Amino acid sequence: CTEDQILPECLAYTALLQKVYKDFGFTDIIYKVATRPAARIGSDEIWDKAEAALIASLEASGVEVIIAPGDGAFYGPKIEYTLKRLGAEYVAESGERHAPVMLHRAIVGSLERFIGILIEQHAGALPAWLAPVQVVVCGITDQQADYVQDVVKALQSQGVKVQADLRNEKITYKIREHSLQKVPYILVVGDKEKASGAVAVRARGNRDLGVMPLADFQQKLAEDIATKV
Fold it and tell me: Class of 135-227 per CATH?
């Protein structure tokens, strides 16, 4: 976000966190702002703005704010939402009670943040196995609407995330629109494809793979997904 958006974004996030935690029965939350460490990047001016915005957002949320000096990351200050200690214990073989050791393992970390990194890494062109929409099926005219739906159902039965485009628009417009959305595969069907049970396949990057039987495309897509290309 921009610098001006730090405050409203943090306000909105705190409100969302409180709602989600409340749904799970957690209302006793400790709110901390972890400020700049000795080893850090960025100017003091930017750190001043960031820390002030985080503190202001919590104060505007009406919660008690605890400052944790020097506990921020090297790249920026943090708001830490901490649940109070639950007093968890386990009984050892000796019969004595001990506090458990918690190992923190996070391969992808925050899911939302990792998705953002993926989008940036692939410039929005997520590979077929990750794409939220893997295939769009476009009919040239209304005459192919029933076949478009048949193709969609066949792909859905395979577990493919597929959409039908039955809008009354020129096929070139549809192709361009879905290409801009970086959909991995666009299938175009006209009367010839309908009659032969085939699909005209366009892969992302404006690659025309030609006409092929639907079963062949299903196999190709399955291989793409399995090999994560």
Answer: alpha beta
Task: Using alpha carbons, select from 13, 8, 51, 7 the residue that is nearest to residue 32.
Answer: 51
pTM across the whole model: 0.67
Distance CA 33, CA 40 (A): 16
CA distance 10 to 124: 26
- In the chain, the N- to C-terminal Cα span, in Å, equals 31
Report the 3 state secondary structure along the chain: CCHHHHHHHHHHHHHHHHHHHHHCCCCCEEEEEECCCCCCCCCHHHHHHHHHHHHHHHHHCCCCEEEECCCCECCECEEEEEECCCCCCEECCCCCEECCCCCCCCCCCCHHHHHHHHHHHCCCCCCCCCCCCCEEEEECCHHHHHHHHHHHHHHHCCCCCEEEECCCCCHHHHHHHHHHCCCCEEEEECHHHHHHCEEEEEECCCEEEEEEEHHHHHHHHHHHHHHCC
Q: What is the pLDDT of residues 121-164, one digit of tens each?
A: 999 999 999 999 999 999 999 999 999 999 999 999 999 999 99
Which CATH architecture best describes the domain 3-86? 2-Layer Sandwich (3.30)
Q: Where are the domains of the chain?
A: 3-86, 135-227
